[in-house]
Amino acid sequence: HIATSLPLPSERDHLRPRIDLIVFMIDIKSKYSLRNVEASLAHVDASFFLGKVCFLVTGVGRMNYCSVEMNAIWKLRDVYCSPVLFCELELEGVRVATAQRLLRMLQICAGHVPGVSALFFSTLMRNSTDD
């Protein structure tokens, strides 16, 4: 399911499936995109930040048109202990690889990968991005 911001409307709570992963998309060319994500973060239960949230930064192939400082992205990663993925949506191969990576993350977060928890996976992601 896709939402443009949080909180989600409460009138459909009874129909909403369980939420296993939240991906916050940030368009590096739009400060509004970052502000929307920052405002939405306040509506996420703290327990989700233990392996069930990631930030997907798009538009990275056009860094010369960047409106969002990378320091702001790194701050979100550090404050919310959540991994950051980068993607250029205009390149099909990158888009497909990112979609596959997100799908694998979702499978882990939903508990469909035996022996790997969302928290453990998040720790692995964090360590790989710090190198």
UniProtKB/TrEMBL annotation:
Superkingdom, natural source: Eukaryota
Chief place of localization: nucleus
GO cellular component, one term: nucleus
Compartment list: Chromosome, Centromere; Nucleus
Alphabetic keyword roster: Centromere, Chromosome, Nucleus
Protein name: Centromere protein M
Organism of provenance: Himantopus himantopus
Upper taxonomic lineage: Eukaryota, Metazoa, Chordata, Craniata, Vertebrata
Gene: Cenpm_0
